[in-house]
Amino acid sequence: MLPAEQPTFCRICEPTCGLIATVEDGRLIKLRPDKEHPITAGFSCPKGLEFVHVQNDQDRVLHPLRRRPDGGFEQISWETALSEIGARLREIRREHGGESIGWYGGNPTAFSHSHALWLGWFLRGIGSRHLYTPNTQDTSSRFVASALLYGSPVVVPVPDLDRTDFLLLIGTNPLVSRGSLISAGNLRERFTEIVARGGRVVVVDPRRTETANAFEHVAVRPDGDAWLLLAMLHVIFTEGLADEAAIAAQTTGNEALRAAADRCPPELAEPRCGVPAADIRGLARAFATAPTAAAHGRTGACLGAHATLVNYLIDALTIVTGNLDKEGGLLFGRGTVDLTRIAHLAGVDTYDTYRSRVGDLPEVIGQLPAPLMAAEIETPGKGQLRALIVSAGNPVLSVPGSTGLERALGKLDLQVGIDLYLNETHKHADYVLPAATFLERDDLVIAALDFHLKPFVQWTEAVVPPRGEARPDWEIIDDLARELGFAAVSGLATKLVGTGRLGRLALRAFAPAAGRVTPALLIDLLIRTGRDGDRFGLRRGGLSLKKLKANPRGVVLAEHLEGGMLRRRVFHRGHHVRLDGDVIERELDRLLGSPPPDVDYPLLLIGRRDVRSHNSWMHNTPKHRDPERRQWAMVHPKDAADIGLSDGELVRVRTAKGSIEVPARVTDEVVQGCIAVPHGWGHLDGGWQIANAAGGANVNEVLPAEAADLERASGMAHLNGVPVRIEAAAVSG
Ligand SMILES: Nc1nc2c(c(=O)[nH]1)N[C@H]1C(S)=C(S)[C@@H](COP(=O)(O)OP(=O)(O)OC[C@H]3O[C@@H](n4cnc5c(=O)[nH]c(N)nc54)[C@H](O)[C@@H]3O)O[C@H]1N2
Ligand SMILES: Nc1nc2c(c(=O)[nH]1)N[C@H]1C(S)=C(S)[C@@H](COP(=O)(O)OP(=O)(O)OC[C@H]3O[C@@H](n4cnc5c(=O)[nH]c(N)nc54)[C@H](O)[C@@H]3O)O[C@H]1N2
Ligand code: SF4
Ligand SMILES: [Mo]
Q1: Are 231 and 266 contacting, i.e. CB atoms less than 8 angstroms apart?
Q2: Which of 45, 180, 621 to mutate to test the pocket of ligand 1 (most atoms within 8 A of CB)?
Q3: Looking at the domain 598-732, which fold is it?
């Protein structure tokens, strides 16, 4: 058969770039960027194109595997795997209750139409609250700030890149990460256009990153952002630069923020954030007086010791300068599927409605802090975690406290993995089930819809059949749910459409497939009842799945996001943004009362991401045979000289939890006193041969992981700005 080309899109990260897949005899031959894609227009990155190696990788898990008594795995049939896992889950539920069964769903679950939804409903079905994800290593602090400010954790405004005059980026490196909580294709181009039209792009980062290097850089001390932002607000309030009309019209409770800012003049902030007071003043004035301005932060803003506060302050800066919900400022997303509504109907637009059994930390969108998993497994009592399913995740490399987690996983009654590979977390798994890749399933990335700067929606069919016996994640979860006597997704349909005329029409359309609710059916329902939907014939020309299928490159729904959305996006009384509240006031006090740096651990460790790497799982591509592509730490020349460390030597990084050794690059790219070490490495005993050979050290082994180390407000792990000591270890081989 001749090779066929099919438009689809990548599902590794937020831009969800349009790709063209070349397929021959049911096998993927090549991926290239789709020049005609309405959003990404020929943009893509090496990870997306190298996914062809993941797709065809000889190391992929292609059959259900069962642990043998000798420790190895043996291939079994799906029927055997599902019935044995089902029997063991039923037994555990009978003996210890559904609350003893947990799930860790990793990062790729967010890039699927169904994975996160299905597993969430699975746990609800069995009555468990043990839901863990990367969120406490990624976004929980952001969600908590949103819950406090806007009344819903899932309302996260995006900077209006195409019209802003001043973009302040805090702790994000979009030229490498490609943007997060933003979905917009080629960001370098968008930022360059801001500058070309006379605007500014300023990057606040302890490292002169690729993005900082291409634009303006403010070199902040790790974890110094709250001081910097609060001092900027000090300048804005004391110099009369705040937009008082906007504050009065859009917010309540600004007094608490003013009072805290009052206590934080730039001179007080300078030694804490490392930015000279004069520069703080200049930055505050420039941001406040720009015709339009937007501040946006990501993981560098989300993983520090004051992460919830930093995220709150980032939005507060935009809000008090009159830039929220306005063109050129921060705008609320307008997904064709209303994410806030779905989250509400699914009961996950929550914050602190219950707390963890161990550590007494709040749930955020129905999820508990992943660093607690080890203690939840090892702490006896009602609700002790006894069975864990890990799908699309590698917590042994991605969650702090790896050594403790690995030990605890070995004590579970049952561990099941659902993945493309045997990763480090599956070392103790009793079963590993083969998942289909994103190219082997149909899809529509619901979670990204609200982050598109240009409202857009695209559906893709699978481009190749699953290899071996791999199955889409939702189908595996659905089958497991059936083993336990329920269907994973049920009842949502009625909730979605209500009981009116639309509801009756929708349910009639839905009925024939009542046997199994597939993602395609659910998406059709969501789209048709959504804001652009055809409402089952009630609105002519509206969207439906059928229409999306007829437009394989997707449908652009508007040129821009619009302002004036507070009434639809802010859920506090009167649709006012709330600037005060106990949590924020406590966090402000905690910051202002926080002790100066730890002299025993004088350096601060931060993370780093590489172009070809994606957390822990893109390390099995041929490029990773090249030692240049492996893990290394960045150390400032002065810090290196202090310990007699030369470029290329191994640096030993020691925290209160232990030490790791990583080859060092001596560079003034990082500020003095800061060391940058990528996470996601430390492959030694996974089933991925190239990754195993690439090795590396697992930085999460030495990062703080006890309940007491997590941020009280959000359960967030502290992964950036962690005090460390460094020593020269040895010459690296
Ligand atoms: N190539 C590649 N792309 C990715 C990923 C990947 O692993 N590789 N991962 C994806 C995922 S899961 C996510 S969540 C996104 C993350 O997207 P980003 O957050 O944009 O990704 P990072 O490159 O980690 O950028 C964080 C930046 O914060 C800086 N930083 C660290 N500590 C501090 C601090 O205390 N203050 C300030 N102001 N800055 C600080 C770091 O130096 C770094 O430059 O990227 C996604 N894209
Ligand atoms: N120290 C430190 N730790 C961090 C971070 C940091 O900056 N510093 N960043 C954090 C962030 S932002 C994130 S998102 C997490 C990521 O943490 P995790 O999600 O736990 O880890 P990943 O490395 O993304 O592992 C993803 C796994 O999913 C598998 N996979 C890929 N696609 C699919 C699929 O479609 N189905 C299934 N079933 N499996 C699939 C891959 O093979 C891989 O094993 O790491 C966090 N950890
Ligand atoms: S930036 Fe790269 S990895 Fe992310 S969606 Fe685009 S092609 Fe995929
Ligand atoms: Mo992430």
Answers
A1: yes
A2: 180
A3: Barwin-like endoglucanases (2.40.40)
